[in-house]
Design goal:
With 67 residues, the protein is mainly β. It has one domain: Roll (Ubiquitin-like (UB roll)), CATH 3.10.20. Helix content is 10%, strand content 31%. Strands 2-1-5-3-4 form a 5-stranded mixed beta sheet, with no helix packed on it. The protein is globular, with a radius of gyration of 12 Å.
């Protein structure tokens, strides 16, 4: 199936969860990270159980420091 990850297409296997996606993207540090699927923010507690669907739009946001 195809997802849009921060507006970039990515092909992943069916049944992929958000943690699976993060692993595919080689993201291990999720501190300060938020994720939204189709414009809906997903609470961290729901990441493990949410299976992504074909053509889902995934937005990954990471908080940064600066001034």
């Amino acid at each position: 199936m195809i997802l849009l990850i921060n507006d970039e297409p990515l092909e992943i296997p069916d049944g992929t969860t958000l943690p699976d996606l993060l692993s595919t993207l080689e993201i291990s540090d999720t501190a300060g990270m938020a994720m939204a699927i189709n414009d809906t923010v997903i609470p961290r507690e729901g990441w493990q159980s949410l299976e992504l669907c074909d053509h889902d739009r995934v937005l990954i946001i990471t908080a940064t420091q600066g001034g």
